[in-house]
Amino acid sequence: xxxxxxxxxxxxxxxxxxxxxxxxxxxxxxxxxxxxxxxxxxxxxxxxxxxxxxxxxxxxxxxxxxxxxxxxxxxxxxxxxxxxxxxxxxxxxxxxxxxxxxxxxxxxxxxxxxxxxxxxxxxxxxxxxxxxxxxxxxxxxxxxxxxxxxxxxxxxxxxxxxxxxxxxxxxxxxxxxxxxxxxxxxxxxxxxxxxxxxxxxxxxxxxxxxxxxxxxxxxxxxxxxxxxxxxxxxxxxxxxxxxxxxxxxxxxxxxxxxxxxxxxxxxxxxxxxxxxxxxxxxxxxxxxxxxxxxxxxxxxxxxxxxxxxxxxxxxxxxxxxxxxxxxxxxxxxxxxxxxxxxxxxxxxxxxxxxxxxxxxxxxxxxxxxxxxxxxxxxxxxxxxxxxxxxxxxxxxxxxxxxxxxxxxxxxxxxxxxxxxxxxxxxxxxxxxxxxxxxxxxxxxxxxxxxxxxxxxxxxxxxxxxxxxxxxxxxxxxxxxxxxxxxxxxxxxxxxxxxxxxxxxxxxxxxxxxxxxxxxxxxxxxxxxxxxxxxxxxxxxxxxxxxxxxxxx
Length: 552
Description:
Helices cover 39% and strands 4% of the residues. By secondary structure, the chain is mostly helical. The chain has a two-stranded antiparallel ribbon. The protein has a two-stranded antiparallel ribbon with strand order 3-4. The protein has a two-stranded antiparallel sheet with strand order 5-6. Helix 14 (415-428) crosses helix 15 (432-446). The termini are far apart. The model is unreliable at 22-106, 120-124 and 159-167 (pLDDT under 50).
């Protein structure tokens, strides 16, 4: 029999068993209208102690002191009348059993259990009062009760939007009734399914809406980048000037990026398009340009192609360092002589190669290394930075041309001497062809046993360098009397170092001289030179030049 009399218990013994049934069984079977195995009468044992007396002395759990004794059925004859001649069965605590085991004894009703008083017949069907969701839970015996777990915290119910909530009606009434029942049992109400559905719909709408918006935005940007016109300002600027430095070997996109960063053009792509559309666009060079902010890309290209925009410091071929220092001072806006003093003091830290250091009797250790080119020099820069940039470019160019590696193949002691030859060719020559012939003149006169000069160069330019002048009317007597290592009329061989800053063409001429036997040269018009192999031929040209000067 299950707990509290709710369902059918153990199966009854087989009817052929001589010990079939007891008082408790008969009491249950009688209610179902079944025939008693003992002639319709319960089995009695008057000589045995009654359950009522036993329960008062040795009451067991599940037994009640008010339970009726087995031998006293209602309206049934006693034991003495029916079974006086039979021997009694052995008594076992808790019931009779022919095998000596504990028999099945029905539990008496529990006064504390209101459901235990329900009369239930074995094998009979009884309605289950706990089978629905609305019913209270069935009672649990005290020994099996456990404390209820704390309810899990739930997120606060969101207020339902009127559009998502829909109409009311019977569903709302049923939902309200379920919440009321749960509240009576001390449980938190279940969150409304409609509220959750509404929130889910809202999330789906937001996700899909955001996704469509993102796809649209990036699609538009992709179309603009691929097929749309690049952003571009209109007009020729807003009147605010700005200086932009374009690095060497910069391509169109890099130039456009520089201009875009300075707010000269609105986009680099617009500048590249304008550069490609202009036939002279590829001629834009590195340097410093003075432009205006917010220019159209086409107007920026046009201005960069104009000499008016160029703000670079131009170092011409053949300039002496004294002239370069003056130009740098003016461009930086510093006091005259500032750059020259920095050069004299810091020359060893400006990037000269090892072969250009530690030469005696030099007038200026940096002579020959302020390479002729275009430099971005603006106010605010330091003289050291400007000089370092020039020296760096000269060293790179000389390395590229092979000055250091080819000096000895030309009969010279060092690349320093080769650079000096290039500076002499630059000072006396006027073109590339002149530079090659002039270099041959130098190499031929350096031969100590040459029959024309016997090892003397006799260049007017060396005397002018040491005097820091540029005269052409010099007497031979004056030239031969001035004692100075740079005066090649007085001293044999090369001067101590370069006498100017030779350009690339002059250096190439010194690296690849002619081999025609030239010893003498003269410039008749200041633009071209004439070369001769003997002194006699040279003097004829000198007389012609003097005659032309007298006429003019």
